[in-house]
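so im writing up the methods section and need the SirB2 family protein record in one place, dumping it here so i stop losing it
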Amino acid sequence: MKHLHMLLAAISVALFTFRFALLLTNPEKLKSKWLKISPHIIDTFLFVLGITMMIQYSLYPGQVEWMTEKLVAVAAYIFTGYYTLKLARNNTMRIIGYLGAMGWVILVARIAMTKQNFLF
Ligand code: HEM
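--- predicted struct ---
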């Protein structure tokens, strides 16, 4: 289950990077159906597996500090990702948003692997 979760996380970041690159180079292609649907499917499975493991290993946010921090970092990654693809109004802002999102996702992976808080 953990390896599938990690694989889905990698695919999710790759799809985000691909959509970011298309937005800068060929935004028309972003309208294709598979690019609109597949991120939602991947991310739903990523979350379902994460929540399943959370329950299985009793790693509840609020009780297990690194889990709290991981979820805060996941939320920040989702927001910066949304900002990059939807809210940013020009390419400079999109690039800044993308770099910010990558910083958060690296933090998520670091917390998941070390099981130690990093920021708080
Ligand atoms: C961007 C999103 C995410 C990334 C990049 C990510 C990454 C990872 C990685 C790399 C591991 C394996 C750590 C290891 O080597 O042991 C892991 C494990 C785990 N993740 Fe995630 N994850 C993400 C989202 C989530 C979400 C949304 C949840 C919960 C709602 C979650 C819950 C868990 C749990 C419970 C484990 C198992 C921890 C353990 O080994 O005991 N993850 N995650």
